[in-house]
Structure to design on (463 residues):
């Protein structure tokens, strides 16, 4: 198969204007064992007829692609629960491996998860327990499951379990389940913390979260045992916090500087350094990304890691959003561009200008508030092709300009123009036969149905 015919087919597979009849034809194809293009399974709103074709597709790889589609409805993907291939069932159990951080992947129904957890193949059960997409109600139900791995998973959601199930897990016959349960319980019981400190595998986590006897805390400070974890502990006595605030280890001082009980003056008296590119993942702020008080404390702090963690909240009120947008911190700007629905246009443009070609720049460009009007006048003749590409976004860009940009020296600009429905039809037809433009032209919603049919025929898709 000629390469650009395959590329054009990939484009048609994601074309939003693809008629259902051609979609069904595309989904049913084998293409010498390759199967349909991946994009065909990851379309949003697949009609029932298309789902039926996918579920019955002879190629397990095709069914796997649908199993991990972030755009498919959970009820649609769930119909693969009885698939004959363990690989397909494992893909279904784990779910989408990547998704847009702005969107949430809905979990499979609890009864479907329960069936996958009872699957006869270990890899399917393991994939389910590793999935980041399980619903809280299902995780809580695992506390009484016969599989110790399932009970360990339940123990990690300790705060959501009723007292009776917590007690049962603490006395579980499996030692790993008991340890996972103890790591949850130690947050409220110093005796349990003391027991965990005797085990090298659990000591650091217990020191980070557990309620501490003073004697245990003093012994760890004297022995310099996991001081970075200890410096985060909420129950650490004040005088020991002060000792760690001047510790010779820079990482320890940084951990102390992030403690939630410190007022701003005391926090900024601690000598710490923060890398210019460190994202920020301060636990108490991250856990409070929907809490107005936590957000205000973090966003108004002079500590860059607190501000950077707060910038990951989509719930920032307008005044805090404005404050962080003026922070002159590139990491804060990147995070606002990813997570906040009202990030100012000028912030998005700065991220794009600074990081063109990166994930953060792509997230900024695909943000709903990324500017559109006026881009053609500003950037159509810009010396940088990344900026010329922005001209395609302008609703006022003329077909003549779009055609001109489809011949641009920069390939990304040419591809953006080739996918724009204002591209004159004669040039769109030409672009289908240009290797680096074929995929973009195939995805152009202005591509006539007869041209889409021709693409399928040239790529060897049976009628």
């Amino acid at each position: 198969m000629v390469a650009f015919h395959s590329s054009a087919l990939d484009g048609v597979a994601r074309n939003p204007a693809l008629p259902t009849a051609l979609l069904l034809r595309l989904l049913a194809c084998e293409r010498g064992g390759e199967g349909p293009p991946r994009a065909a399974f990851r379309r949003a709103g697949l009609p029932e007829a298309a789902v039926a074709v996918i579920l019955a597709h002879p190629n397990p790889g095709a069914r796997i692609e649908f199993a991990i589609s972030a755009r498919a409805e959970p009820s649609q993907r769930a119909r693969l629960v009885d698939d004959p291939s363990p690989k397909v069932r494992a893909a279904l159990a784990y779910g989408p491996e990547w998704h847009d951080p702005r969107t949430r992947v809905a979990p499979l129904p609890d009864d479907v998860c329960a069936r996958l957890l009872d699957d006869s193949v270990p890899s399917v059960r393991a994939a389910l327990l590793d999935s980041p997409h399980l619903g809280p109600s299902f995780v809580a139900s695992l506390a009484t499951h016969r599989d110790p791995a399932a009970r360990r998973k339940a123990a990690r959601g300790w705060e959501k379990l009723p007292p009776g199930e917590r007690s049962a897990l603490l006395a579980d016959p499996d030692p790993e389940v008991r340890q996972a349960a103890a790591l949850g319980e130690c947050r409220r019981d110093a005796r349990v913390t003391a027991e965990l400190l005797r085990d090298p595998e659990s000591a650091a986590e217990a020191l980070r979260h557990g309620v501490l006897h003073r004697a245990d805390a003093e012994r760890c400070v004297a022995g310099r045992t996991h001081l970075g974890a200890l410096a985060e502990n909420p129950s650490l006595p004040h005088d020991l916090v002060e000792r760690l605030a001047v510790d010779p280890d820079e990482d320890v001082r940084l951990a102390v500087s992030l403690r939630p009980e410190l007022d701003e003056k005391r926090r900024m008296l601690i000598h710490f350094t923060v890398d210019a590119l460190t994202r920020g993942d301060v636990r108490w702020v991250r856990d409070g990304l929907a809490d107005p008080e936590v957000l205000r404390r973090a966003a108004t702090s002079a500590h860059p890691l607190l501000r950077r963690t707060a910038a990951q909240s989509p719930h920032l009120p307008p005044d805090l959003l404005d404050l962080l947008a003026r922070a002159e911190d590139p990491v804060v700007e990147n995070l606002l561009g990813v997570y906040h629905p009202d990030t100012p246009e000028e912030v998005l443009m700065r991220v794009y200008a600074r990081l063109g070609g990166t994930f953060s720049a792509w997230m900024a460009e695909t943000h709903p508030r990324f500017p559109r009007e006026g881009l053609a006048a500003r950037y159509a003749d810009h010396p940088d092709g990344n900026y010329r590409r922005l001209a395609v976004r302008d609703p006022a860009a003329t077909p003549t300009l779009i055609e001109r940009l489809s011949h641009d020296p920069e390939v990304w600009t040419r591809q953006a123009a080739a996918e724009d429905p204002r591209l004159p039809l004669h040039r769109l037809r030409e672009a289908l036969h240009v290797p680096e433009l074929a995929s973009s032209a195939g995805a152009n919603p202005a591509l006539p149905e007869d041209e889409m049919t021709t693409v399928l025929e040239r790529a060897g898709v049976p009628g």
Summary: The chain has a mean pLDDT of 94. The two ends are 17 Å apart (CA to CA).
